[in-house]
Design brief:
The protein is of the alpha/beta class. The protein contains 12 helices and 10 strands. Strands 1, 2, 3, 4, 5, 6, 7, 8, 9 and 10 form a 10-stranded mixed beta sheet that branches.
């Protein structure tokens, strides 16, 4: 494998309305990838036919017999079949900026053997409104930064979300395999974050301030819309597995992240008017966040009328914010 060769892995499951846009964004790169692997995850729409019609010798289509939740098994199949040193990921309903691969190659050139992955910022497109999400806040234009596991955990806790997002991540093939690949068959959501965390246990990351991709939040057949969060986060078990061998400063960060992920699942379940189950926050480390633990207990055990009052208060706040956002500027 050439040291700077890049394979793109695109899992495809019933994304016919979007796959053409994703493939075109790969073909439009100013610095071309070496290989494009589309993994048909037992799609039933015309997405595969659209890809087959594209005339480009770099494109390979692999097939699976049944769909795997989250596209994890499809990505694993693509990784195993790839012939490049680096693996870039693009979901079938997302796109890259034209200079995405050029920025990736700039970061790869700075990566020594201790680097497991690189990542950048991205845009969130809500259909008429676009927000930029930086992987690591505070980086200057053109700046890159090396992150150890400790720095990665700090960035996650500071921003409240994983610094890495799938279509803005490129990882060494051997690092992905060494970290155990995506958790196929083990969870329906959250497997990407789990994968990125494990990558940081086998090597450091390099991040860039550049924005290279767009995440469309109004796509069809989105995992985040077809799965619920009223369950214990899969990531928590991986984090707990790291605790015994971690030094005290890392263990402290891991414990805080375990609690934060449980809270985020509970908050999202509450937003959909679901009473959270006690299993969701099993293993919560109370000494780290006692006030949050009390809140979780209330979300699980409060009388129905109190929960209904909290839903009504939330709805009033949302309506008020909506009215303010639509007021004409003076």
């Amino acid at each position: 494998m050439a040291r700077e060769s890049i394979s793109v892995v695109v899992p495809l499951y019933n994304k016919g309305p979007h796959i053409g846009r994703a493939i075109n964004s790969i073909l439009a790169q100013t610095s071309a990838p070496d290989e494009i692997i589309v993994v048909n995850d037992a799609s039933t729409d015309d997405g595969v036919a659209q890809v087959s019609a594209v005339e480009d010798s770099r494109i390979r289509i692999l097939h699976r017999d049944e769909p795997g939740p989250g596209g994890y098994a499809a990505r694993n199949k693509g990784i195993e079949a790839a012939t490049s040193e680096w693996i870039a990921f693009l979901d079938a309903d997302d796109t890259w900026m034209p200079g995405a691969m050029a920025e990736v190659r700039r970061l790869i050139a700075a990566a020594d053997d201790g680097i497991s992955c690189i990542f950048t910022g991205y845009n969130r497109d809500y259909g008429g409104r676009v927000e930029t999400a930086r992987g690591i806040p505070g980086l200057r234009p053109g700046e890159m930064k090396r992150l150890t596991l400790s720095g990665y955990l700090d960035a996650w806790l500071l921003s409240g979300q994983s610094p890495m997002w799938t279509s803005a991540v490129v990882a060494r093939r051997r690092s992905l395999i060494g970290a155990g690949l995506f958790p196929a068959g083990k969870c329906n959501r959250g497997g990407d974050k789990d994968m990125w965390l494990r990558l940081l246990t086998v090597g450091d990351a390099i991040c860039s301030s550049a924005t290279t991709a767009t995440y469309y939040q109004n796509s069809v057949n989105m995992v985040t819309r077809t799965t619920n969060t009223n369950q214990r986060p899969f990531l928590c078990s991986t984090l707990e597995g790291l605790l015994p061998a971690s030094p005290p400063d890392i263990a402290h960060r891991i414990e805080r992240l375990i609690n934060w992920e449980m809270y985020c699942h509970a908050r999202d379940a509450w937003r959909t008017r679901n009473r959270i189950g006690a299993e969701l926050y099993k293993g919560f480390i109370v000494r780290q966040n006692p006030a949050t633990y009390v809140l979780l207990i209330c979300m699980a055990r409060a009388p129905e009328y109190i929960l209904n009052a909290s839903y009504s208060a939330r709805d009033r706040i949302k309506r008020r914010k909506l009215r303010v956002s639509h007021q004409p500027a003076l």
